[in-house]
Amino acid sequence: xxxxxxxxxxxxxxxxxxxxxxxxxxxxxxxxxxxxxxxxxxxxxxxxxxxxxxxxxxxxxxxxxxxxxxxxxxxxxxxxxxxxxxxxxxxxxxxxxxxxxxxxxxxxxxxxxxxxxxxxxx
Length: 122
Description:
By secondary structure, this protein is mostly beta strands. The chain has 1 helix and 10 strands; from the N terminus they run αββββββββββ. It starts with a helix and ends in a 6-residue tail after the last strand.
């Protein structure tokens, strides 16, 4: 019985995770959460080509933290349970990554990230 309950919880969690909301002209799509290589309470940048974590962020900030590497073709993995993460594209547009979700970016360059204590994208 315990195994069935665990599987049911996992199925519900999988259905809930992976929600991301785009703000402005953000060119990205939502993907299922992949947190195996990004531990709580981090927001990580994961390269799509090989799955390597190329950035980890933990602090809530009032402004964007610059990304000197200017990555593209990455996942943004938000393992935080109650905080959203905003990402900034090179063209100035922004997107919001909901708590406990992953946001995939292909073909566009990122220049900044900001973790907010807000629990929802608004």
